[in-house]
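To whoever picks this up:

The parser on our side crashed when reading a file containing two proteins. I've narrowed it down to the boundary between the first structure block and the second sequence. Both blocks are reproduced below exactly, byte for byte. First block:
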Amino acid sequence: MATNPPKKTAAPAKKAPAKKKGNTGKAGRPAGLFTWVTIGIVVILVGVIVIVKVNQTTSTSKTSFGPVSAQVLSEVTAVPTSVFNTVGVTSPDIAVNTPSVANPTSAALNWADAEGVKHPTIFYYGAEYCPYCAAERWAMITSLSRFGTFTGLQYMQSNPNDSYPNTSTFTFRYSSYKSKYVTFVPLEVEDANYKTIATPNAKEQAVLNLYNPSTPSQGSTFPFVSFDNKYILLGSQYTPGALAGLSHDQIAGALNDSTNLLTDGIISASNYFTASVCAADNNQPGSVCDSPGVMAAKSAMHIK
């Protein structure tokens, strides 16, 4: 059973993945030929059933777990301002990476939103199976909710056979986002079972070619974020291992607690993410971009 995220007064809980045990059984000598044949047939049938079951449970994963509950949605999209400001970029237990400055000669994205209005654009490129995307989405959602409103978010877990299996997260596949400050363009290109569900359009591919090109031996990096080509993020800001064994309810429920070690990691990442958004949209709104938590992130990133 998963435990709640640890507070600062306790060492973080580490749960090692359970090891699979091999099947064991006993062999017996049948009383006669008929019994031997019968047992042989039963063993073959059972073996076939086991093989089918194993293949089903190890190679597939649910692609969606339905709409996010009202409680979790509120907890992840309405983190108290006091938590952002108290945490700042202080994360003593979880190392947090920052976005980096993009090429200053790159043209701003400034793509239109769903209503055709152009704004500085946050472009996200990821996949549902990806555990690193799973971790980053917590910081993304808490950050972007300070600039606008999400609808249609759905529960998701990363692939059970990948690194950091079954990491609790969300998917942007069915979501929409409305903001008067920025346009958010999320692109989930593969589902939880590695099946292609979307491909970049010409504009999106041009950004990927510039900052996240695919190579013959390896595809593009997940996750990737362009902050209107002012800042970019390649990879997650913190390890998915920080979320190991925790449910959506447990992670979201801790986000109002600035003494929680996991919250420190997510909120530090979120403040860095927010500072990058502010750098892209000319520091709007001031109530967010000039807040103490975001100013701490700006100072650490040398953003003026």
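<<boundary where parser fails>>
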Amino acid sequence: MRLFLLILFGLLVVSCKTETPSNRPNVNTNIVANANKNVNLPNSAADKVPVYTYEIVNTFKHDSQAFTQGLFFYNGFLYEGTGQKGASELRKVELETGKVVQKVGLAKSSFGEGATVLNDKIYQLTWQEGRGFIYDAATFKLLGDFGYAGEGWGLTSDGKNPIMSDGTHIIRVVDPETFKTLRTLVVNNENGRPLMQINELEYIKGEIWANIWHSEEIGKPNHIARIDPNSGKLLGWIDLGGISPDDVERDEENTLNGIAYDATNDRIFVTGKRWKKLFEIKIKPKQ
């Protein structure tokens, strides 16, 4: 009887061995693998944000007194909004020489911020006044102004609506006539935390590119964020480390700030606050 019980116990142990997916005919291992790839986990390999680097194509002169707050390319010229009270301007700049060919000054009490063009009108923000200005793009004649809640930082356009940042992780798409917010984008970093201090903006090939003010504070000096304009998702980083010109007398405010895109010739330009150079760059994957 004891021998019979020992044999029976052995048979039960063998029959209860743990099965693996490979020896279970009703489990499709490909489906399991694919499902695991699609799991949205923070810091997982599936969610790794790509990083790009750059190649300098051309170098141009840039006014070292220009505290660059907004930059865009329009009809063959660079347009630049500068900051600091008593020195804030909107400028039209000849790319090849860096010469300012047209400008208009803001009131001495105003601190100019981001600027963009839409429907032959130039929009320019101010920092803490909650007020922006609209100019005729050809003459720089003041056409009107507009108000908004919070601070004004960066400004660009998707061809239909202005898109602005306010120094937080929120980007607003606004109505060009009333400047009322139509929708907002919440931007988080690769760890799922708010990506703060989103600054100067540019719309490039269906993406929002954004300078991050003092990006060195998040361990990414001279980095530009690539953002999905529909969801706010962080699509990638562009590492411009080392591009800062050596001949600039550095201070804590002379950060990378200024992205312009020439859509006709597919050219990207970047500069910084009081930098002596403006760079045409080509983006490429980082090895």
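After patching the parser it read the second block fine. Residues 49-285 form a domain with the Neuraminidase fold (CATH 2.120.10.30). The chain has two helices and 20 strands.
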